[in-house]
Amino acid sequence: MDFRSDNVGAVAPEIMDAMMRANEGTAGAYGGDDLTQKLDDRFSELFGTEVRVFPALTGTAANAITLSALSPPYGSIFCGEHSHIATDECGAPELMTGGAKLMPIAGDNAKVPPDALAEAIARAGTGFVHCSQPAAFSLTQATEMGAIYSVDEVAKLADVAKQQGLAVHMDGARFANAVSTLGVHPGDLTWRAGVDALSFGATKNGAMAAEAIVLFRTDVADDLAFRHKRAGQLLSKMRFIAAQLLAYIDDGLWLDLAGRANGKAQRLTDGFAAMSGAKLEGTGEANEVFVTLPGPVIDGLKAAGAQFYGWPEPWEATNTIRLVTRWDTTDGEVDDVLAQTSALLAQS
Q: What pTM does this model have?
């Protein structure tokens, strides 16, 4: 019953097989191999427009490098208050940008409301030399509370940002989960809605270690190439990262894997919803489930071997826990945690 994160899951066999196939013979270094050279074309086909792709090992690197190309050192980057760039990346965006200021915005289910974004930009001191200057807006898809921005919601936020000259970045660590739930074309949820750059996640969804910076604004690609190298992400054996990314998007594997994780999360949601004494939080739209339970029940689940985190930690502050499902979460894990919860609630 391991619901700590989708990061704890195994590598999907299709991706492992692709890496094994790549592990034959020699290949050009630093992206000069045949696999890496295919990324731009394959991702352009996937999104329905010309893109430039830069592989990275971590989501933190993808986010920070991308933002460094979208904001000057004196810039302001607007984002959700629970976003990873604001809470979980140890100052990497500030470091990579050379000092850009993050401007967190509150919103239900970790979504940024368009009105709040507009107000924050209006109060930012545009043109005033004593203030950091509005440069970029970053939204997370799906959010840290498992909520999903619709195509219209992304477009409205992008429109607010673009009206004030801001670039738009999407942290897509769980982008596959969002696309799977919405059933839309990935281009509709990104560049057609006004997104300039996407941190396209794969590690949480079956890859070993692979993220992709996808630039819809290809005019910043030359600059980003140097930032990518300077950040230590131009790997000498890039073919093994490219192999993962190509296998991930081949034949819709990325959406299949995300659909499995989302389906298990929906089973959890339905199970908790039927229990008296369990209160669901958030929207349950992707692969993260948040539920508030009595303290003794949470203690009992941990004693029974269930693994999860509080939201936030320590869970005693709210009695709310987060359960994240993976592409390889089993029916047994879901059934066991629901059965244990039901039994513990009956005893409390």
A: 0.95
